[in-house]
Write a structure and sequence with these properties.
Helix content: under 10%
Shape: globular
Strand order of the largest sheet: 1-2-5-8-11-14-17-20-23-25-27
Number of strands: 41
CATH architecture of the largest domain: 3 Solenoid
Largest sheet: 11 strands, parallel
Distance between the termini: 127 Å
Number of helices: 5
CATH superfamily of the largest domain: Single-stranded right-handed beta-helix, Pectin lyase-like
Number of domains: 3
């Protein structure tokens, strides 16, 4: 058999050279696009295993971007970028899984006899100019009830793209450096919190960001999104363009902002009274998420004439205009002509050395979109689940979570495990619209003496699946006693000591509770029948629960106690003691 041969006509030498050159240039440009200066990986496959180690090793006084690529992982560390390390850029492998988290709050000791303070509590504290980050989640995991910052910015020209900022009170601090103006830019980011969680005196633009105002646990009725303390020398403060403020999964209603440092104790004469400036332009707002008044004063000392709080074309997610008829009288509803000055060029400098025609001096005009194509163009969001939590009730466990960037068609599989290794899907939900952010499910309680582990697997065709870290709901046997400390027992030469009592209770008990007193003591559940160490008390739980039970205790009677001893100091010379 003679095989047939297909002849392929090759280009002429000149054409082949041009083809080869084009391929080479493409490879070189791709290599440059994905080349990083160093890599951080927890498994040791990079140059460093921690982010701080990479920052510490980065060269000082750079004038061009120095890129630190961070592979997926949960990096539990506090990171500080010193002022002599400008132009550092953190690039995460994926925003859902590249997580920097720490847990300081404002009262955490600073090692020098004081505390960190609010700004010092940041999981990352940036003191250098020209910092940027892409595809990284920044978390402060301290919890509720204290000022605990995820990102503290204390320098000019910081930019973030496709990043997440997770916390509660004071999640994101945008601040000046030594009296100079700071300018910060956020594009396609997700920011959550529950009190003043975007705050500071910087000039900041938030483009296409999701602002998720979480349900509060304490003081759940109301709270505040922003707390700008814009200096009177600045023409601009915060600008939110095309932001989304979805409804939360509870009942907390939010004010768009309150005026930090425009309150009792701050004065214009002393130069300390802030001229707070916050503008929301073309914002989509969830139903029953924002207070009808929109904005609120800090206290009776607030001077509302110093405030510029405004909105432009706020709508609900269905496109219907928000009812602003009850907004406070000192806030503004902007007309199209009012918005023309709210541009990146005006707010970040025009090249004339000022941030505006009458604003304070800045180093130079700054265009964060020039940092690269990623900063200047829209990109499709990633699947990134946030705030998976479980509440254990008396009869069932309630679970809830939210999505950072809502999309129709995302499938959410809630999975359960008894060993945190092998998971089984117990419920599935699929988002029907691109405005659905909150999800919930319930499950039976784990059996007494055991625990369940839960995770959410979120997926959509064409996008990378996100699997959350697991959380635990436990029915581990737990015994509690009253916190009252028993006093010292006085032993008499005859009879028992005075009776003292404490209480004991238990949940998820899988066996009887046996209480054995020490030698020389007796215990009782009724104050009449007493048991010693040779005959301990046995308490039987009902449905794995032991109701609070009072235990009386005393020293045993002394009819079998013959020998006693004590010590005392010697009498002074020339004197005597009688016993």
């Amino acid at each position: 058999m003679i095989a047939s041969v297909t002849r392929i006509a090759l280009p002429c030498p000149a054409a082949r050279f041009r083809m080869w050159l084009s391929c080479l240039l493409l490879l070189l440009s791709s290599a440059k696009l994905y080349a990083y200066d160093v890599t951080v990986a927890q498994d040791g496959s990079g140059n460093f295993t921690t982010i701080q180690a990479a920052v510490t090793a980065a060269p000082a006084s750079r004038t061009a971007v120095y890129t630190i690529y961070i592979k997926d992982g949960i990096y539990s560390e506090k990171v500080t970028v010193p002022s002599n390390k400008p132009f550092l850029q953190l690039v995460g492998q994926s925003v859902a899984n590249t997580i920097l988290t720490w847990h300081d709050d404002n009262t955490t000791p600073n090692g020098m006899g004081g505390t960190l303070g609010t700004g010092g509590s940041g999981s990352i504290v940036v003191n250098a100019t020209d910092f940027s980050a892409l595809n990284v989640t920044f978390v402060n995991s301290y919890g509720d009830g204290s000022q605990a910052v995820a990102v503290s910015l204390y320098a000019d020209r910081a930019a973030f793209k496709n990043c997440r900022f997770l916390g509660n009170q004071d999640t994101l601090l945008t601040y000046e450096a030594g009296g100079a103006v700071s300018r910060h830019y956020f594009r396609d980011c997700y920011i959550d919190g529950n009190v003043d969680f975007i705050f500071g005196n910087a000039i900041a633009i938030f483009d296409n960001c999701t602002i998720y105002a979480k349900t509060r646990v304490v003081n759940a009725a109301t709270s505040y999104i922003t707390a700008a303390n814009t200096p009177p020398t600045q023409n601009y403060g915060y600008l939110f363009r095309n932001a989304k403020i979805p409804s939360n999964n509870g009942t907390t209603l939010y004010y768009l902002g309150r005026p930090w440092q425009n309150s009792t104790g701050f004065t214009t004469a002393a130069g300390t009274l802030a001229n707070n400036k916050v503008i929301f332009s073309k914002t989509k707002i969830g139903v029953n998420e924002v207070q009808p008044a929109g904005w609120v004063i800090w206290d009776a000392g607030t001077d509302v004439t110093k405030i510029t709080n405004g909105e432009y074309k706020s709508t609900y997610f269905n496109g219907r205009p928000v009812n602003v008829s009850q907004r406070v009288s000192w806030s503004k509803q902007l007309a199209p002509a009012d918005t023309v000055t709210y541009t990146l060029a005006n707010m970040f400098g025009t090249g004339t050395g000022t941030a505006s025609s009458t604003g304070p001096p800045v180093a130079a005009a700054w265009n964060p979109t020039a940092l690269g194509a990623d900063f200047g163009t829209y990109r499709a969001p990633d699947i990134a689940v946030a705030n998976l939590q479980a509440t254990k009730g008396t009869t069932q466990t309630s679970l809830q979570w939210n999505i950072s960037w809502a999309m129709a068609g995302i499938k959410y599989d809630l999975q359960r495990s008894t060993n945190n290794t092998t998971f089984t899907t117990i419920s599935t939900q699929t988002a029907a619209t691109d405005s659905l952010y909150n999800f919930a499910a319930t499950d039976a309680l784990p059996a007494a003496g055991s625990a369940y582990y839960y995770r959410v697997v979120a997926s959509k065709t064409g996008l990378t699946t996100h699997t959350t870290p697991s959380i635990q709901v436990s029915s581990v046997p737990t015994i509690t006693t009253s916190s009252t400390t028993l006093a010292a027992f006085t032993q008499y030469s005859a009879g028992t000591s005075a009776v003292q009592t404490y209480t004991v209770a238990g949940v998820n008990l899988t066996n009887n509770l046996v209480i054995t007193p020490p030698a020389g003591f007796e215990i009782s559940t009724n104050g009449t029948t007493w048991s010693g160490s040779a005959a301990p008390i046995t308490l039987t739980p009902t449905s794995n629960t032991l109701a609070s039970t009072t235990i009386s205790t005393q020293t045993a009677a002394t009819d079998s106690l013959y020998n006693f001893a004590a010590t005392d100091a010697l009498p002074a010379a020339g004197s005597a003691y009688y016993y």
